[in-house]
Each structure stands twice: as C-alpha cells, then as structure tokens.
Automatic annotation (TrEMBL):
Name under which the protein is recorded: DUF2913 family protein
Taxonomic lineage: Bacteria, Pseudomonadati, Pseudomonadota, Gammaproteobacteria, Alteromonadales
Organism encoding this protein: Shewanella morhuae
Length: 211
C-alpha cells in the first residue's frame, strides 16, 4: 500500500530528474544547451511514466509536462520547473510552522503592505469588492474561525485574492504556506481568484510555483 503524499512524490520526482540530468551531463563531459536539457528531461519523463517509476499521484503532471516539452522544446523550461518544485517543497519541509500562525502572520504582513484584508464576512454568494485597485484578500468568516484550531489548520481555507500572483506566492511561502494554483471560476468575489491552503500543506496537486 502506497502511503506517500503528493508532496513527497512530486519532490522525489523533481530531485530524481535533476540528479539524473546532472549525472548524464557529467558522463558526456559537456555543457548542455537548454534545448538538450529539455530533450533529456522529456525523454526521462516518458520513461518514468512508462516504467511507473513514481506514484500515479504525479502521472497527470508527467503527461502534461511531456506534452509541454514536445510542443515548446526548450521553452518548456523543464529543468527550471523541477528546480522550483525542489525549492518550494523543501522550504516548507524545513520551516513548516503551525499553519494557523503562518496564515495570521501572512495577513498581518499584507495589512502592513496596505492590502485590503477581510476575514469577518460570511461569503455565501457572489460579492463585489470596490478596492480602487488595491491588492486584496478575502476569507470567509466561518472558514477563518472554524477551520483553525489550536493554531493548526484543520480544514482547507479558500483565499480570494486580487494581487500580483508571484508576490502573493512569495509572501505565503515565507510564512510556511503552499497555495493551490489559482482558479478564477470558483471565486465568490468578483475580479478575485481563489487559492486554497490545506492542513499540513498537503495540496492534492502541484502548488502555485514561483517564477
């Protein structure tokens, strides 16, 4: 029975891919171009998928990355993708705080940066926030009050955000939080995107990555 989490599997995959790329370059004793690196990693992912080297939790990721590499070549930047995965997933492994504390610390930082932050409103229908262009974060009051217990996140929380995505991702990571990839369709706040945080950072799919 495979008890690995998605986080563990995607980090294992990224580390293995970079290690095999480095080992191959050392064997060839030549500096590889980005196009050659992408070609190697694409083939490596094809073989990994075929051999079921990693848990099926990342099968859809591998399929998508292979498709990307075949259509974009070096533009797929597979090496950079794997490096970003290693950086972020190792970062939360080393620094994971109680996520309730992390979320509240992030909120305080955003307020200091003049974001509009609302955590005291029940979000049950589509709402509009007139923020006059300011970055903003809205969290449903029930989720904010009921999904954190003893400083720990016990259920997922939706974050409705209008802001620079990379800035948000960087700030969240600095407080030990992984964010889901954004979803505009599920947002209950007009002109905002939905991000989710999960207990123990156990995202069910690839998190929002830094560029």
């Amino acid at each position: 029975m495979n008890s690995q989490t998605y986080n563990q599997v995607v980090l294992e995959l990224a580390i293995a891919g970079l290690a095999d790329l480095t080992a191959s370059a050392q064997t060839k004793k030549a500096q590889r171009t980005p196009a050659q690196e992408s070609h190697f990693l694409c083939n490596w992912m094809v073989e990994s998928l075929k051999e079921k080297r990693f848990s099926k939790l990342v099968a859809d990721d591998l399929t998508a990355w292979i498709r990307l590499a075949r259509s974009q070549g070096a533009g797929a930047e597979l090496k950079h993708l794997l490096e970003r995965i290693v950086y972020q997933y190792q970062a939360i492994e080393k620094t994971e705080p109680a996520l309730g504390i992390g979320l509240n610390a992030m909120i305080e930082e955003l307020k200091q940066a003049q974001w509009l932050v609302f955590t005291d409103t029940d979000i049950t229908a589509k709402l509009k926030l007139d923020g006059d262009g300011q970055s903003s974060l809205v969290i449903d009051a029930k989720e904010f009050n009921q999904h954190i217990k003893d400083d720990q996140l016990i259920k997922p929380i939706n974050l409705y955000v209008r802001a620079d995505e990379q800035q948000l991702t960087r700030i969240a990571l600095s407080h030990g939080l992984l964010l889901s990839q954004s979803n505009k369709k599920t947002s209950l706040i007009k002109h905002h995107k939905t991000y989710r945080i999960y207990p123990h950072n156990q995202q069910p799919a690839l998190c929002q990555l830094l560029a």
